[in-house]
Design goal:
This protein has 205 residues and is an alpha+beta fold. The chain is built from four helices and twelve strands; from the N terminus they run E-E-E-E-E-H-E-E-E-H-E-E-E-H-E-H. The strands form two sheets. A six-stranded antiparallel β-barrel has the order 1-2-5-4-3-6. It is globular. The protein starts with 7 loop residues before the first strand and ends with a helix.
């Protein structure tokens, strides 16, 4: 479990893809998150919960299953890719963002970025099945960053939502580099998923 408060901006240093491209092993540099890392620890990398299988002074290595490669932006990672890093929460951790599981629900696409005094506004399109879990002033994790939805627009082809990116988020995370056409990992609020599941049962009973 995570909070969506990014601890540091890390970097992919190596990607070893299996011969049949079904899985991969990735090595990531991040001095802060590796300071006390141990084998088996969980680290969110751009919102994807990964398990540490090896570590050195300032890097850690994790395995990527075929499912992870198929459903997240991890398939696009190459040496030099910047990634948001967060260690899993502990009982004494401040819950500064919202409850984030590190289980990516889908991949969104940045459709627009507009600069305003004091913040940037970013629009992201998501598949239609994720739109029902998004609401104005609701929470969403984008590349593992806990953010607040400004507005939601539904169309026949899907859903687009907007976010406000303050200077701190812009400088401390990958959101400072996101431009139209870029892909990003989306995890909707887990409470919204439970609510939708309960409503589905009520409608069929």
């Amino acid at each position: 479990m995570f909070t969506g408060i990014v601890e540091e901006l890390g970097e992919v240093t190596a990607v070893a893809l299996a011969v049949d491209s079904s899985d991969a092993r990735v090595t990531i540099r991040g001095a802060a998150v590796t300071a006390d890392v141990a084998h088996g620890d969980s680290i969110a990398v751009n919102g994807v919960c990964l398990t540490v299988v090896d570590s050195e002074s300032d890097t850690f290595t994790a395995d990527l299953m075929a499912e992870t490669l198929a459903r997240t932006t991890a398939k696009e990672w190459t040496p030099g890719t910047a990634v948001n890093l967060e260690r899993s929460v502990t009982p004494s951790t401040r819950l500064g963002g919202h409850l984030v599981q590190g289980h990516v629900d889908g991949v969104g696409t940045v459709t627009a970025r507009t600069a305003h005094p004091g913040y940037d506004e970013i629009s992201i399109a998501v598949p239609g099945d994720l739109g029902r879990f998004l609401a104005p002033k609701g929470a969403v994790a984008v590349d593992g960053i806990s953010l607040t939805v400004i507005d939601v627009t539904d169309t026949a082809t899907g859903t687009t939502f907007t976010l406000g990116i303050i200077p701190e988020t812009r400088s401390a995370t990958t959101m400072g580099r996101r431009a139209a056409g870029d892909s990003c990992n989306i995890e909707v609020d887990v409470m919204a998923k439970y609510a939708q599941r309960l409503l589905a049962f009520r409608e069929t009973s």
